[in-house]
């Protein structure tokens, strides 16, 4: 039985003081909740948020990290620095990293393997563009992103992997994939994992949906068989909007 996993990707929003205020409010709103919740602040906001969620079960993640552990890489942040802050989870391969900063499947795979070598959990994002979907390339794109992104990841290490299916055309656009379309993509991804690993690994894998998730559509999405959670962008920026998504089943 897979447990729902609801995550908020703040992208480049929330100063340290705003992040701390949000986190304190979320901690008190979630008292007694057993839902697995993660928030991913920008790097400089992480310490304030880590401090604010202390004692709660909220996971604080990074939105990205370097493909190296240390050295002459101006402007980069390494896994060692994140771990020193108590951050053990990282989002990798977000479509904005792919499209705006040229991250390739090979580069993302290098980061995935590095994070796993540091015993970090990875939330690996995949998803097709509108032209890929309309051109009938959905399965080809997902197959490439999953196969390349997870190259060299052992069956044992798959316990640390969450996948987030985020169709690029649904991100920040207000257009959500229908629960049926999203579920079909998730089912395809799960069948792919069963082929690459085992049926057991595929059945345990958490696959989040991302792309204009909000309070009004969270329940319909999450009630689908293969949708095990959400990676929320815009609606994760206020507790008022994020909380009903976390509590979609209440
Ligand atoms: O990219 C996303 C989360 O990583 C989704 O963003 P939105 O929820 O704003 O569409």
From TrEMBL:
Pathway stated in the Swiss-Prot or TrEMBL entry: Carbohydrate biosynthesis; gluconeogenesis; Carbohydrate degradation; glycolysis; D-glyceraldehyde 3-phosphate from glycerone phosphate: step 1/1
InterPro entries associated with the record: Aldolase_TIM, TIM_sf, TrioseP_Isoase_bac/euk, Triosephosphate_isomerase, Triosephosphate_isomerase_AS
Major place of residence: cytoplasm
Family listed: Belongs to the triosephosphate isomerase family.
Residues in coiled coil: none
Subcellular location as annotated: Cytoplasm
Subunit structure: Homodimer.
Upper classification of the organism: Bacteria, Pseudomonadati, Spirochaetota, Spirochaetia, Spirochaetales
HAMAP family in alphabetical order: TIM_B
Task of the protein: Involved in the gluconeogenesis. Catalyzes stereospecifically the conversion of dihydroxyacetone phosphate (DHAP) to D-glyceraldehyde-3-phosphate (G3P).
PROSITE patterns, per database record: TIM_1, TIM_2
Listed EC numbers: 5.3.1.1
Annotated source species: Sphaerochaeta associata
A single MF term (Gene Ontology): triose-phosphate isomerase activity
Residue sites binding substrate per the record: 9-11, 172, 212, 233-234
Keyword list, A-Z: Cytoplasm, Gluconeogenesis, Glycolysis, Isomerase
Identification of the protein by name: Triosephosphate isomerase
Residues annotated as catalytic: 94 (electrophile), 166 (proton acceptor)
Catalytic activity of the protein: D-glyceraldehyde 3-phosphate = dihydroxyacetone phosphate
């Amino acid at each position: 039985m897979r447990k729902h996993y609801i995550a908020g990707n703040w992208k480049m929003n929330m100063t340290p003081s705003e992040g701390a205020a949000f986190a304190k409010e979320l901690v008190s709103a979630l008292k007694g909740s057993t839902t697995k919740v993660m928030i991913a602040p920008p790097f400089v906001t992480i310490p304030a948020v880590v401090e604010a969620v202390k004692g709660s079960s909220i996971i604080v993640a990074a939105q990205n990290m370097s493909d190296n552990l240390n050295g002459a890489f101006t402007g980069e942040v390494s896994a060692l620095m994140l771990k020193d802050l108590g951050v053990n989870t990282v989002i990798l391969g977000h479509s904005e990293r792919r499209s705006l900063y040229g991250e390739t499947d090979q580069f993302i795979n290098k980061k995935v393997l590095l994070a796993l070598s540091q015993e970090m959990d990875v939330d690996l994002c995949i998803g097709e563009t509108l032209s890929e979907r309309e051109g009938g390339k959905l399965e080809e794109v997902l197959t490439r992103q999953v196969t390349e992104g997870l190259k060299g990841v052992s069956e044992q290490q798959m316990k640390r992997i969450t996948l987030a299916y985020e169709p690029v055309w649904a991100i920040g656009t207000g257009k959500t994939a229908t629960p049926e379309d999203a579920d079909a993509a998730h089912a395809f991804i799960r069948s792919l994992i069963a082929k690459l690993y085992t049926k057991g690994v595929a059945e345990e894998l958490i696959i989040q949906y991302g792309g204009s998730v909000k309070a009004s559509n969270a329940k319909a999405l999450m009630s689908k068989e293969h949708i095990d959670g959400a990676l929320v962008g815009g609606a994760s920026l206020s507790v008022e909007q994020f909380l009903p998504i976390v509590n979609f089943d209440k």
